[in-house]
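To close the chapter, one final illustration. This time we ask the reader to focus less on the individual chains and more on the assembly as a whole: which components sit near each other, and how the overall shape emerges from the parts.
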Amino acid sequence: MFRREFWRNFDFFLFGSVLFLCVFGLIMIRSTIAGNIELANYVNRQATFLGIGMAVMLGVTVLDYHYWKSLSKLMYVFILAFLGIILIIGTTSFGAQRWLEVGLVNIQPAELSKIVVILVLAHYFSHNEKKPKNLRWLATSFILVAGIIVPIFLQPNLSTTILLAVIWFSMLWISGLPTKYVVIFGLGGIALGLIAFPFLEPYQQERILTFIKPDENARHGNTYNVEQALITIGSGGLLGQGYNSGTQVQLRFLKVRSTDYIFSAIAEEFGFIGTLILIAILIFVIVRCIRAARLASDMYGALIAFGFATLIAFQTMVNIGVNLRLIPVTGQTLPFISYGGSSLLSLLLGIGLIESVLLHRKTL
Amino acid sequence: MVLSIGERFVSNDQQVHSGLERWRFKVIYILLGIVFSIYIVRLFSLQIINGEAYLQQSEENRIKNISVQTLRGNLYDRNGIVLAQNAASYNIAITPALLPEDEGTREQIYRELSTYIQVPVTNGIVTDKSARFFTPCQTDFGIKEIVLIGDTNAPFSPVNVKCNVNNEIAMVISEKRGTWPGVSVEIEPVREYPTGYLTAEIVGFLGPITAENKDYYEDMGFVAGRDKVGFGGVEYSLDEILLGKNGLRVVEVDAAGKEIRDVQPPLAPVPGNSIRLTIDTRLQAAAKTALLDEMNFWNTWLNRIQSQNGVVIAMNPKTGEILAMVSEPTYENNRLERYIPEYYYNQLSQDPLKPLLNHGISAMHPPGSVYKMVAAVAALNEHVVTPEQEIPCPGTISVVQKYSANDPGIPREYVGYDRNGHGMCNFVKAVGLSDDIYFYKIGGGFENDVPNGGVGVWRLKEYAEALGYNRPTGIELPGEVSGLVPDPTWKRIYRAENWSTGDTYITTIGQGYVLATPLQVLQSFAILANDGKYMQPTIVKEILDSDGNVIQAFKPKLVWDLTKDPLIDILDENNKPTGQKRVIEPWVIKYAQMGMRRVVEDGTATKAMAKLEIPSAGKTGTAEYCDNVAQEKNLCQPEAWPAHSWYVGYAPYDDPEIAVVAFVYNGLEGASVAAPIVERVLQTYFDLKAIDATGGFE
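The assembled structure is written out below.
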């Protein structure tokens, strides 16, 4: 593995742009601290996670991704148990049982579950590659995913629930889901949404309602954050107000600015040109991941790559969409850039897997 | 575009795994392309098309204009006694954001603070509604609730939990600064009226900026709800001089409202100018005491409430300076220093004696005999009589009351106050004794004694207006009314009745329809005392800047000189102006002065003025009236109407320095009620003058 040829298929463009995004994220997080002492150690923490993440990524790259196949069942059982424990004794943070304190580090099982869902589904779909794409094939995959989705939905964590559902659907799609099912899914999805709405938590309902019909009087209410995000983005103009100089960021009018609304912060400080470049790089990363899926030498590798491409693409689209007030508020972060150790770790692990798929395709 | 980049990156590599269909990737690329294209269009719209508007909003977020409160000018009397000034009031405030994090520590602070300021730790429930109507200093909420509301509205702004604490508590609490973070002592300027009730009718009071005049004051940079403006008296009428100009700081604030820095150099507030009034507080006190004493004396003597309402005004006739102006009853403006208590204001505004009104300028009454000086001057100047001419002045005369030229008329008896009459009267004797019959005759004419209808109502009006009646004097006080000098046209319009011959007779003696304010009456005498020169009455001596430098010195203003400015229209036989005008001859005014001197020397006020050593002149007045108040009490009986008491005097006779009017509502006889008040004021004036001349209190 230390031979030159081994690294020939390594996607340096992908690695380079991901590294760029991560470092840029660190720089932006530094700006968004904006003098808040409570956030002061964010940069160091994120840098630590970036270091660990890079090591994990390289480790996973070198490791033949086929090894993961044998771990699928174990991982699945482990994550089910983990989610079960969390449901019972999880630490409540921000009103949701999303964290479990393990030693010094909070591990977010939702992040772990994304990886597991991708690996398990890739295993399942590649294993059944040659079998007919019938209802049984579909139902089995559904049951596999449901085992993870349901406890997460119950936490409650709607954004991860939707994300996992999207990953499942996109992997179904690329595995050759017949078109008639797509139509059924479309109709079924809408129906499910309408039926599920009354069962959502009040705050989730409220978010959706404020998005559809903003309450004019709610100055400090739910629209405040989104309104401030729009003002922040708009005030960036063409070239932005400059790094560390965005008034709405530095004077903290923009809330949740190191995670959910970091895109708005970038838009204010770097302007239309800056955000355009950022979006271009993000698209490039997504496209390079899909490229890896097309280049993979087997179905398993292709599905892993495509699964992670979906993960990155969906998170990017939802996060920017929320910032631009095009979709309702959900807690989705901007991949590689937003503050959050667990998320960064799992994303870098995913990139490692994709590089592994590229590196190990000749070994077949 | 996005799609094509993606395609190129992929199309370079030919290999696609057999299990994957190319078209499915295409769908994904198209989806990505659509979503990101929408995003870019949206970004373009937000940042480029609407960028300016959002930038504006972001500026509104971060830039705050802070008005820096200016200091209102002070009011002084002519000797520098403070009538209105600013004083510090201590409020205890809490800045929610600066309170300690720990809830236990906060509770501890609330509990300890509560014992000092007598505000409960917790009281009431904060709801949307109660929070909206929350006004610091006027709330029942406990400390906790006030802090909660403050924290929600503006965590970095101090919110008052207790207002107007005394010095000691303010000291104790400001010493606790270190141990009680977030608790502070805020200093608020409040208006202080040290002389209170004594000068309230002149000084007035302040009040909040109301909804009606909010725009006006906000355009000038004042802040509704914080800054106060004049509501009455000089505080109102000279508001613009006193107000000053608020300063302005443009600061950058963060999301919590914390000030970060000044964005522009701050504009310092410009303090208002101070005013030195012409009032002498000592004389004001003497006048008020004299009036109250006199009214109390008669109320006690008669064993009934005869009178509670009166006016005393003192003026320097040579300069127009008002030395004292008492309107009784008035109000305690020192009770309105901080805010206007509703119950007190209601009590004042519903009081039938109208204490909020300055009766010296805002109330008009029949002037009675003091108005005879109009006819006196007119008769001599128009050569209706000569001063030496002796006319019979019996106790009664019979005059034919006619409503038109062809009206055969009904004879009517006109009586003087002395049924025995005064024999034969010349001009000076008639003024001295205030002989009604003499004035009837010269006013409306009588047989061969005064042929051709005497002065007549039209010419009487010319002279009344020349002496300052029928128009506001223009003194710098709010609410001045113009009084009324009637003529036949006025009666036809407002009473739908023709002018009768009798109307002229009673107008001559200041009865009937004539109405005048006490200040107008005083002014007409000041003109005569000052040899026909009408000096603008004023309450403003000097205007001073905030450092006490005089920026506008006193300069007496001559309105007109009757002996030089032709003001009297010469009327033709139909009483229409001929276009020619005449002056009042100086000798006429001399005779008028002689008549008024006779009043004191050997006339109606001789007894009342006996003690005054300085030679004075004056005129009594007993004005019968029948207004709504009297009618309600059924007092308007024929021959026994209620009467107001008037006296106007000035001294020294040969070189007048002071003219004083006293008016007592329903006070009966002028000579016995109003004249003694004037005597006391004149006496005090000369006593004070003597004290000042010898160095006074210094």
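Chain B has three domains: 2-49, 86-194, 281-693. The radius of gyration of chain B is 37 Å. With these observations in hand, you are ready for the problems at the end of the chapter.
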